[in-house]
Amino acid sequence: MHPVSLIALLTASASASASPRQSAPVNQNVIPKTFGVIAGEGKDKIQIGSCLGANNALIPCYCPPAPDSPEFLTKLAKALVDGFIFSKAQVAVPITLAKFNDESDRSAETNKLRATAMIEVMQNFNMTTQGVGCPGVSVPILGMMQQTGIVARGFGGLGNGGR
């Protein structure tokens, strides 16, 4: 093998093994273990591609991603680091990555800010077109957290609960 190829291969390998840690520096301990809706549950027979969300509202069947989804965590981290999703005038994120990650701060106010940031990322999930993503009814646990500052530990009657 050519020495340059070997160096390129080793560099690519090192980058690949380091990227999961670098792509999701979000503290998952401050994120609810469920969003209250399970993606793909309750497929609608009339509106193909739609599934059941909270309050029997129809949502895209890919919504929501799991709370530990690498794609969700990467997009959330990017938004928290950048401070906005598109531009500051459009979708500003109300909390910094450092404050979001501070596990010692479980105050209602900080939890509300965390929930708002996660909902904004969900609602703009493709990160290229504002408002293209998962609607709020796909993450009722986050909606409740945004209103009350309380992190729910289960479905609590919200969402599709695996129906």
From TrEMBL:
The keyword Signal applies. This is Uncharacterized protein. It comes from the Eukaryota. Keywords: Signal. Residues 1-18 form the signal peptide.
